[in-house]
Amino acid sequence: METLEKEVTTRPALQAVVVFLGVTGFIALLFQLSRSASLVGSHLHALVAAVFLLVPSWIARRAREDLGEYGFSLRPAWPSLLMAAWVSAIVFSLFLVGFVLFYQATCGGTSWGLENLAPGLCHRFVGWKGLAEPRAPMDFLDSAITQVVVVAVPEELFFRGYLLRRLEEAFPPRRRLLGGGIGIALATSALLFALGHVLVDGDFRRMAVFFPGLLFGWMRSATGSILAGSIVHAASNLYIEALHRTFFP
Questions:
Q1: At what angle do helices 77-107 and 227-247 cross, to 10 degrees?
Q2: Cβ(247)–Cβ(127) under 8 Å?
Q3: What residues are paired with 175 via a beta bridge?
Q4: 44: how many CB neighbours lie within 10 A of its CB?
Q5: Local mean pLDDT, 10-residue blocks, the chain (249 residues)
C-alpha cells in the first residue's frame, strides 16, 4: 500500500520530466535545423513559442483540465500587477548595481579578465557615467511585444504553468514566503528551466537562468497566475538589453 501511494504521488513529477525531455529534444532539433534550413531559422522563435503553448494546451485538453489551472489567466490581476511592479523595482535596482560593479572589476583587470573572454567588449564599457545617457532597446515597441508574446508567456505557461503545477502535486511546498511555495518543486522547475536552455544550444553559461527561474516560479505559486512572472520575465530581457546598450555604447 505504501509503495502504491508513493507511486501515485510521484506520477505527476515523472510526467513533468518526460514531457520536459520530449519538448526540449524537439526544440533542440529545431535549433539544429535552423542552422541549415533557412525557413526554420527565420521562424525559429515562433516555432518554439508554438511548442510551449500547444503542449500544455494539448495535455490540459486530454486531462479535461482548464488552462486556468496552469495559471493561464489574468486573475488575480491587481495583486499580480502589484507584485510584478515591486519585484521589478527591487530586483532591477540590485541587478543594476551588481552589473556595473561586475564589469568595473573584470574590465579593470582586477578580477577574472572578462576582456579575454569577450574581446572588444571592455574597451566600450563606460561605467556609471552611462546612466547620464540611458538607452532603451532598439525598436522598443516591437521588442516588447515579441518578448511578451513569443518569449515570456509561452515559457511561463510551460515551465511555471504546467511543469511547476505538476511538480507541486508531487512535492507540495512545506514552506511559503509571502504566499509563494518554497521547496523541491520550485527548485526542480528552475533547474529544468536552466537545463532546457543549456540542452538546446550547449552554452553552459545559460545555467544562470536558474535564479530568475526561482523568482518566476515563486511568483506563479504566490498568485496562482503566470501574469506577474510573464511581465517580469519580458521586462528582465528588455532591461538586460537596455543595460548593455547603456553601458557599452
A1: 30
A2: yes
A3: 182
A4: 17
A5: 51 93 96 91 95 96 93 94 97 96 77 54 88 93 96 98 96 93 96 95 89 97 97 97 94
Do 233 and 212 touch, CB atoms closer than 8 A? yes
Distance in angstroms (rounded) separating the CA atoms of residues 152 and 67: 16
List all residues 6 or more positions away from 122 whose beta carbon is below 8 Å from its beta carbon.
103, 106, 107, 114, 115
Exposure string for 130-148, b = 16+ CB within 10 A, e = fewer? beeeeeebeeeeebbebbb
Specify the DSSP element, H or E, that contains 133: none
Is the Cβ–Cβ distance between 227 and 80 less than 8 Å? yes
**Residue 133: all three cell numbers together:** 545617457
Cα gap 1→40, rounded to integer Å: 50
Residue 230 CB coordination number (10 Å): 29
CB hemisphere CA count around 152 (13 angstroms): 23
Amino acid at 5: E
Are 240 and 209 in contact by the 8 Å Cβ rule? The answer is no
CA distances from 62 to 76, 146, 249 (A): 26, 29, 50
Q: What is the dihedral of CA 226, 227, 233, 237, to 10 degrees?
A: 140
Query: Which whole-number Å values give the CA distances from 163 to 18, 69, 89, 109, 173, in the listed order?
Result: 10, 12, 27, 42, 14
Nearest to 107 by CA among 96, 93, 120: 120
Q: Which candidate, 30, 39, 11, 9, places its Cα nearest to that of 196?
A: 30
Residue pointed to by grid coordinates 521562424? 43
